[in-house]
DNA sequence: AAATCGTGGCC
DNA sequence: TGGCCAAGATT
């Protein structure tokens, strides 16, 4: 019942998105569905669009993507965040090419085994690209279903979501639920007045749609400090590649010291007359905030561990946003030369 | 299984 | 402006 209403709404109000086929049309290329779904994990549509277009133009097929080098793919992902997605993207592409003949497996169960594909993404690709009536539960669906039935537990939401999922047009239905959640049943100030299923909605009837879904309180973010070192020589700056796992894993970066303790200039990659830029770069991650002080020095270009990167091509290094901020600060200070010696 | 993992936009 | 949030996965 409700599913039909939502599909009818989708037929008239579906968003037009670069990775999407219109309602009722033949399903899009699984490669495109997969690429978009990975990028969209915990990431807004607006942020994904330019990355998706760039990736698709540069790597139009899974074979092309599988042949990419790690460094160029990580650089292309720079700025989008959650960088383990990029590593898993490449691992997944190579697995599909090497073990599945370059074709994505068509079932959610098989998709689920691939790197970077969890319960949600497996169901979404199976439904959208292959027409499997998989139960697709993302943050949008959780919110819509929790409100429709005034449910508090994730388990209850999943059961209801499964009961609601239609055998026909499962891909359109999944996207319809996500569009409904993204444009009408929003986290704050939901547009209940124009909601197609308002009359079926318990949360609306109870007069407090925003009370669902119930979120556990979030712990406070600790604050950390660190130094980043801008070492320049002969028009080049020293960059390192961070370890594959952990924060900003696998990304190019400025050398840094320890994050947390009282940061020390002793953590520099080598002794130099470091000048401290002010103010530090402030950056907020998911679970902590950071003040990154940038220390600059002109040095002799030697065999320090890392890459000496041409400063006039720094935009091609693929620095994540934190280090892009630090680099911009250093380049700006470099023009004005007002740094304080220390 | 709780912690970890980015970033930008919004109010 | 600071907290909240976004088409979650991994360990």
From TrEMBL:
> Which reactions does this protein catalyse?
Hydrolyzes free adenine bases from 7,8-dihydro-8-oxoguanine:adenine mismatched double-stranded DNA, leaving an apurinic site
How are cofactors bound according to the entry's free-text note? Binds 1 [4Fe-4S] cluster.
The entry assigns this protein to a family as follows: Belongs to the Nth/MutY family.
Enzyme Commission identifier(s): 3.2.2.31
- Key word Ribonucleoprotein present: no
Q: What is the name of this protein?
A: Adenine DNA glycosylase
Keyword vocabulary terms for this entry = 4Fe-4S, DNA damage, DNA repair, Glycosidase, Hydrolase, Iron, Iron-sulfur, Metal-binding
Taxonomy, superkingdom: Bacteria
Q: What does this protein do?
A: Adenine glycosylase active on G-A mispairs. MutY also corrects error-prone DNA synthesis past GO lesions which are due to the oxidatively damaged form of guanine: 7,8-dihydro-8-oxoguanine (8-oxo-dGTP).
Stored PROSITE patterns? ENDONUCLEASE_III_1, ENDONUCLEASE_III_2
> Which organism does this record belong to?
Sphingomonas changbaiensis NBRC 104936
Domain HhH-GPD: from-to ranges = 39-183
Q: Name one GO molecular function term.
A: adenine/guanine mispair binding
**Which cofactors does this protein require?**
[4Fe-4S] cluster
Q: Name one GO biological process term.
A: mismatch repair
For the keyword Iron-sulfur, the answer is: yes
